[in-house]
């Protein structure tokens, strides 16, 4: 039985168990018994006990089956492969899986007998799985059916189980963070066993190509990530150079000057910019903005790369404008009107009030907003993947081509990956740096924004 | 008159001109910033639309061709597999050879290159649909090669030659134009085909189906989990350190770069749990984790907006806490939660970076049928096509972007309408 059939069986069991439990409670009540809970509670209780245990077993099964099967197969492998390196065992196992999925190959390889064993194992596992799940379902129905008595506190039990399920759902968010951290950390540690962290963090040459043969020159590749950090910072700086003044001034204009009509039209229109997928910005940067900047550069005699940092940064800045403006808009609106009235009362003009009263009062919030925007710029992937280059140049010239951390992660991980090559693992080390930096920025920024909001509440 | 002799009033009046000018300047900067933002929006949309609208039309060559049963070695009674495997490409080549009379092999080759390599399939599907046409002469609209298509749509009529077409080829094409054989029609191929290396055969149906399946998985997982988490955090969670950590965590996750979710998907879902790569299933799982924070945050706001009097009334009538939440609070908070979910789904729809990590970038020609078939999604298709050098692909990329933006506009409008219709003021 495959997983979709089993899931459908579980759904049917869910419905059937609900009606069974409810009707049993009703018939007991009909016999003059005084039940503790409503019939629907008994139905829900039966449904929960019928479907939750098999569902948990099924999830465990999905996770454990490949492992157990592979362990059993490893024992079947020829002695020569089994005693060789771990990589060879893995290679042989994946061959066995390929052969097993294509019956015509069965007779052609010396691993054919192992593959036949795998097919046999899988069949047996499927029967066993179906049997176990169905019997657990039936057991759940039977036990709960017997338990349904007038004094069974069904409501309390159902509510306890539902509460646990609600808690589990909110725990997923924490598990996600842990999952990101563990997965990235684990591979990054493997990477740092091959390449020293000092070289990674302070080295200035990045060429992750690992030679195919050991005797080729530069066979180890070099993993000095400074050019990537510098490229990321250069592009983010260009983006912030556009987004912060424009976003901030737009927010000031919309909250202090604009009539409510203009505000109602312009604010959503600006926010449309934030809703456009980044891949669209990337396309716009690579095919329209980059050639345009190159054309201008050529007409004034400058040598502009066709993948200039300026094009990517400019478009990224446009993308971040609404982000800065809506966050700053919030904090500017949170400044109490009394501060402005006081300033007007002393004879200040509107712009003087904004510059000398509103902005200083809103400054922490604006700093928080800018930090969130920086974290956004550092983590942005598609614009740079499409419009920035791959060459790791260490330069501060915005007309040159630079590469970023995210571009390198994408380049290293798209296509086939080998999880024992430093090239693939390097992507996870870069991911670790990216995650830590953005997490720290977000953490501080969110704290600042929240603290600031409370200040005037 | 020196400074010391000025009265205070005179000093203030002298400075007023400067202060008023500063005021006007400041105001103009603000207005310019808003206009700059709006201008970017207009330029972006204008650029995409001007490049993309031509993707929805396709040039075809109308020709009458004899479905020669003897040449193809089939009759109307032949089996389906025989009809499938007949040499339709050869039939088309023979037809144009007789029709145009090219001199020599190289000229013949440059003639055949004007017709799409998919033309044979067009005839094949027509014969499969109705085998009785075998032996008859039929009129068909054959797809032309993308170079001809681009020339006819963009350069014909403005007197420029084409770098991609030779003099001789242009001569033949002009002949077809004069006999009214060449025309443009609505590009249905773009909507019914999967990906292809040939621009004139490439379509977005595979990508759209992949997107729908991926979003289905995302919705089925993230909506219940997100709603449940929001309920727990807002209604049941004790106010302690643990809850605080969960809250900070969710706020942070909403701002983590999307690419790190791709790393998580690769390392955990694919390498540890063994979910197969490139499938809507693994894509949906990754996008679920990415959209959950959005759904939870908006769900909590919606629950918070339900006034406490509702809860107190229910509790006062003897409902349990759980009954109060599920029978009274949740239905009232549902519109807000749905709005948040649609916005989260719209985010997921436009997301590209994490899906690149988990192999959804594969070249997939077939339209995926289920959540465990290899597939790609619309934004990734856009990314793939934007890399292709052919001009026809640039046009199709813009066309695909227009379709993607169309979906996004529909979803966001739905969210706004839902909010307007169901919004309640307490």
Automatic annotation (TrEMBL), chain A:
Signal sequence residues: none
Keyword Cell inner membrane part of the UniProt annotation: yes
Coiled coil: none
GO biological process: phosphate ion transport
InterPro entries: MetI-like, MetI-like_sf, Phosphate_PstC, PstC_N
Alphabetized CDD domains for the sequence: TM_PBP2
Membrane topology annotation: Multi-pass membrane protein
Domain ABC transmembrane type-1: residue ranges: 229-445
Gene Ontology molecular function terms on file: phosphate transmembrane transporter activity
Pfam families per the UniProt record, alphabetical: BPD_transp_1 (PF00528), DUF3708 (PF12501)
UniProt keyword terms in alphabetical order: Cell inner membrane, Cell membrane, Membrane, Phosphate transport, Transmembrane, Transmembrane helix, Transport
Main location: membrane
GO cellular component term, pick one: plasma membrane
PROSITE patterns: ABC_TM1 (PS50928)
Location(s) in or outside the cell: Cell inner membrane; Cell membrane
Transmembrane segments: 6-21, 42-64, 126-145, 166-192, 228-252, 272-293, 313-336, 357-378, 425-446
UniProt keyword annotation of Ion transport present: no
Record function comment: Part of the binding-protein-dependent transport system for phosphate; probably responsible for the translocation of the substrate across the membrane.
PANTHER family with a match to the protein in the record: PHOSPHATE TRANSPORT SYSTEM PERMEASE, PHOSPHATE TRANSPORT SYSTEM PERMEASE PROTEIN
Similarity annotation: Belongs to the binding-protein-dependent transport system permease family. CysTW subfamily.
Protein's recorded name: Phosphate transport system permease protein
Organism expressing this protein natively: Thalassolituus maritimus
Organism lineage: Bacteria, Pseudomonadati, Pseudomonadota, Gammaproteobacteria, Oceanospirillales
TrEMBL record, chain B:
Domain ABC transmembrane type-1: from-to ranges: 208-414
Entry membrane topology: Multi-pass membrane protein
GO cellular component term, pick one: plasma membrane
CDD domains found in the cross-reference section: TM_PBP2 (cd06261)
Record-level Gene Ontology MF annotations: phosphate transmembrane transporter activity
Record-annotated membrane-spanning stretches: 26-49, 212-233, 253-274, 281-303, 325-346, 399-418
Name of the protein this chain belongs to: Phosphate transport system permease protein PstA
Family annotation (InterPro entries): DUF3333, MetI-like, MetI-like_sf, Phosphate_PstA
GO biological process terms, semicolon-separated: phosphate ion transmembrane transport
UniProt organism field: Thalassolituus maritimus
Localisation: Cell inner membrane; Cell membrane
SUPFAM superfamilies to which the protein is assigned, alphabetical: MetI-like
Keyword annotations: Cell membrane, Membrane, Transmembrane, Transmembrane helix, Transport
Family to which the UniProt record says this protein belongs: Belongs to the binding-protein-dependent transport system permease family. CysTW subfamily.
Pfam families tied to this protein: BPD_transp_1, DUF3333
């Amino acid at each position: 039985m495959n997983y979709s059939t089993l899931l459908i069986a579980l759904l049917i069991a869910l419905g059937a168990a609900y009606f069974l439990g409810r009707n049993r409670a009703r018939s007991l009540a009909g016999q003059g018994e005084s039940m503790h809970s409503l019939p629907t509670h008994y139905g829900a209780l039966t449904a929960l006990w019928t479907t939750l245990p098999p569902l948990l077993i099924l999830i465990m099964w999905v996770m454990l089956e490949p492992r157990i099967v592979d362990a059993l197969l490893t024992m079947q492998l020829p002695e020569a492969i089994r005693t060789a390196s771990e990589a060879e065992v893995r290679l042989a196992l994946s061959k066995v899986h390929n052969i097993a999925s294509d019956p015509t190959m069965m007779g052609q390889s010396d691993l054919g007998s192992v593959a036949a064993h795998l097919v046999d194992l899988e069949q047996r596992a499927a029967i066993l799985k179906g049997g176990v799940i169905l019997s657990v379902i039936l057991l759940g129905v039977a036990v709960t059916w017997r338990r349904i008595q007038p004094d069974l506190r069904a409501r309390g039990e159902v509510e306890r189980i539902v509460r646990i399920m609600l808690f589990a759902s909110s725990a997923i968010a924490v598990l996600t963070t842990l999952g990101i951290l563990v997965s990235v950390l684990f591979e990054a540690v493997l990477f740092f066993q091959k390449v020293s962290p000092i070289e990674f963090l302070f080295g200035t040459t990045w060429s992750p190509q690992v030679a195919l043969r050991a005797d080729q020159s530069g066979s180890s590749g070099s993993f000095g990530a400074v050019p990537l950090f510098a490229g990321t910072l250069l592009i983010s700086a260009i983006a912030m150079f556009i987004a912060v003044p424009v976003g901030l001034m737009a927010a000031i204009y919309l909250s202090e000057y604009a009539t409510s009509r203009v505000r109602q039209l312009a604010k959503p229109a600006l926010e449309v910019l934030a809703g456009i997928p980044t891949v669209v910005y990337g396309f716009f940067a690579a095919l329209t903005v980059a050639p345009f900047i190159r054309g201008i550069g050529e007409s004034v005699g400058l040598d502009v790369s066709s993948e200039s940092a300026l094009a990517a940064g400019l478009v990224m800045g446009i993308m971040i404008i609404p982000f800065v403006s809506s966050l700053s808009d919030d904090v500017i609106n949170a400044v109490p009107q009394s501060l402005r009235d006081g300033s007007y009362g002393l004879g200040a003009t509107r712009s003087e009030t904004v510059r000398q009263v509103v902005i200083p009062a809103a400054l922490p919030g604006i700093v928080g907003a800018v930090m969130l925007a920086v974290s956004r710029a550092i983590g942005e992937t598609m614009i740079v993947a499409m419009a920035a280059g791959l060459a790791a140049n260490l330069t501060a010239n915005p007309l040159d081509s630079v590469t970023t951390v995210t571009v390198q992660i994408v380049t290293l991980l798209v296509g086939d990956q080998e999880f024992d090559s430093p090239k693939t693992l390097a992507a996870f080390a870069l991911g670790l740096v990216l995650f830590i930096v953005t997490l720290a920025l977000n953490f501080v920024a969110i704290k600042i924004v929240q603290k600031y909001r409370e200040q005037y509440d | 008159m020196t400074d010391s002799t000025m009265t205070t009033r005179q000093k203030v009046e002298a400075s007023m001109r400067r202060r008023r000018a500063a005021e006007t300047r400041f105001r103009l900067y603000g207005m310019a910033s808003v206009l700059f933002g709006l201008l970017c929006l207009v330029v972006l949309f204008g650029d995409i639309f001007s490049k993309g609208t031509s993707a929805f039309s396709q040039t075809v060559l109308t020709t009458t061709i004899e479905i020669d049963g003897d040449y193809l070695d089939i009759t109307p009674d032949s089996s389906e597999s025989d009809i499938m495997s007949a040499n339709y490409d050869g039939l088309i080549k023979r037809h144009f050879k007789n029709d145009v009379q090219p001199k020599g092999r190289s000229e013949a080759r440059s003639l055949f290159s004007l017709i799409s390599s998919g033309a044979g399939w067009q005839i094949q599907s027509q014969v499969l649909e109705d085998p009785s046409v075998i032996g008859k002469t039929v009129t068909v609209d054959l797809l032309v090669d993308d170079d001809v298509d681009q020339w006819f749509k963009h350069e014909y009529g403005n007197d420029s030659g084409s770098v991609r077409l030779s003099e001789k080829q242009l001569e033949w094409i002009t002949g077809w134009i004069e006999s009214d054989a060449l025309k443009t029609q609505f590009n249905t191929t773009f909507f019914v085909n999967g990906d292809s290396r040939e621009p004139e055969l490439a379509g977005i149906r595979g990508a759209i189906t992949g997107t729908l399946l991926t979003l289905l998985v995302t919705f089925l997982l993230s909506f219940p989990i997100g709603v449940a988490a929001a309920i727990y955090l807002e209604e049941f969670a004790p106010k302690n350190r643990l809850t605080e950590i969960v809250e900070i965590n969710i706020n942070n996750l909403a701002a983590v770069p999307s690419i790190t979710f791709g790393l998580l998907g690769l390392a955990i879902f694919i390498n540890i749990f063994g979910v197969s790569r490139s499938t809507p299933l693994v894509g949906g799982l990754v996008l679920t984790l990415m959209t959950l924070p959005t759904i939870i945050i908006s769900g909590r706001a919606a629950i918070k907006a339900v006034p406490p009097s509702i809860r107190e009334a229910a509790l006062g009538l003897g409902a349990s806490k759980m009954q109060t939440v599920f029978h009274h609070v949740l239905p009232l908070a549902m519109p807000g939660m749905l709005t948040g979910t649609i916005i989260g789904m719209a985010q997921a729809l436009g997301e590209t970076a994490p899906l690149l990590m988990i192999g959804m970038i594969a070249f997939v020609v077939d339209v995926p049928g289920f959540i465990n078939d290899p597939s790609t999604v619309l934004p990734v298709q856009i990314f793939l096509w934007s890399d292709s050098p052919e001009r026809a692909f640039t046009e199709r990329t813009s066309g695909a972007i227009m379709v993607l933006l169309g979906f996004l506009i529909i979803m966001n409008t739905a969210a706004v309408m839902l909010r307007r219709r169901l919004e309640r003021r307490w």
